[in-house]
Amino acid sequence: MFKECLKYDIIPFIIDEQHKLYYYRGLKEYGTEKDYLLDTCRSAQDAYESFIKYFFPE
Q1: What is the DSSP string of the chain?
Q2: CB 42 within 8 A of CB 35
Q3: Residue in 52, 27, 31, 49 with CA at minimum distance from that of residue 40
Q4: CA distance 19 to 32
């Protein structure tokens, strides 16, 4: 998934310990509530983007 995000110019994300349980819940509840998973992935994207900005400031 990481490579596909890069391929399509989408900020990749890594599910770390902080996001893991929310990610599992999002997968479990995806059939009835898609926002759990989407919000978790967006939060992980925000964290990854902050790492990028820290290590590669413009």
Answers
A1: -HHHHHHTT-------HHHHHHHHHHHHHTTT-HHHHHHHHHHHHHHHHHHHHHHS--
A2: no
A3: 27
A4: 20
Task: Quote the CA–CA distance of 57 and 2 in Å, as a whole number.
Answer: 21
CB of 49 closer than 8 Å to CB of 11: yes
Q: How far apart are CA 23 and CA 3, in angstroms?
A: 19
Exposed, middle or buried, 10 (CB in 10 Å: 0-12/13-18/19+)?
exposed
Res 38: pLDDT: 95
Instruction: Confirm if 13 and 41 have CB atoms less than 8 A apart.
Output: yes
> What's the pLDDT band for 32 if we cut at 50, 70, 90?
very high
